[in-house]
Amino acid sequence: MKIYTKTGDKGSTALFGGTRVPKHHIRIESYGTVDELNAYIGLIKDQEISGDLKADLKKVQQNLFTLGAELATDPKKAQLKNGKERLNIVRVKEAEIQFLEDQIDAMNQNLPQMTNFILPGGHTTVSYCHIARCVCRRAERLAAALNEVEPFEAYILQYLNRLSDYLFVLARKLSKDLQVEEIKWIPTKEN
């Protein structure tokens, strides 16, 4: 398989289905940001964390590839002439969202109650979680903008929303596991 095609040399790219759009198109920004998020999830997964968390993050990465494929598909060409779906893959649905919620609840059970906002930091692995959370929120914002123009399956936005919550709680869990203090935001009051 040849890596370079030269078809994008003038600033356009093809969606799944063949439609060409500018590389700055909101659809490209959406799935490109999901791809960036996936890379950060990989970075977290490569840290010294439990095997269970690594397995959970691998599952998240698989789901993000699926979301990316859905976002990369031209809705006008999502169905083939024979009536079959162009994307012949299992989609992210309610079960994947429930998985994130279950993981959030399980992690949260053993964490101290939050009394302040928490500043990112304290440990490199924790910081990677916060970076991934921020990229996830950006992916969600871009996908929401795309959804206004070209609506897609509601599960995509729900999954991204829940994933950012998961990443926040994961950062808190890893702070506890790594025995680093969470950095509370304590605003300075004016006199």
Automatic annotation (TrEMBL):
Protein name per its UniProtKB record: Corrinoid adenosyltransferase
InterPro entries: CblAdoTrfase-like, CblAdoTrfase-like_sf, PduO-typ
Molecular functions per Gene Ontology: corrinoid adenosyltransferase activity
Domain Cobalamin adenosyltransferase-like: 3-173
Catalyzed reaction equations: 2 cob(II)alamin + reduced [electron-transfer flavoprotein] + 2 ATP = 2 adenosylcob(III)alamin + 2 triphosphate + oxidized [electron-transfer flavoprotein] + 3 H(+); 2 cob(II)yrinate a,c diamide + reduced [electron-transfer flavoprotein] + 2 ATP = 2 adenosylcob(III)yrinate a,c-diamide + 2 triphosphate + oxidized [electron-transfer flavoprotein] + 3 H(+)
Any one Pfam family match given in the protein's UniProt record, by short name: Cob_adeno_trans
EC number assigned by the record: 2.5.1.17
Superkingdom classification of source: Bacteria
Family: Belongs to the Cob(I)alamin adenosyltransferase family.
Pathway note: Cofactor biosynthesis; adenosylcobalamin biosynthesis; adenosylcobalamin from cob(II)yrinate a,c-diamide: step 2/7
Keywords noted in UniProt: ATP-binding, Cobalamin biosynthesis, Nucleotide-binding, Transferase
Transmembrane regions: none
Originating organism: Mesonia ostreae
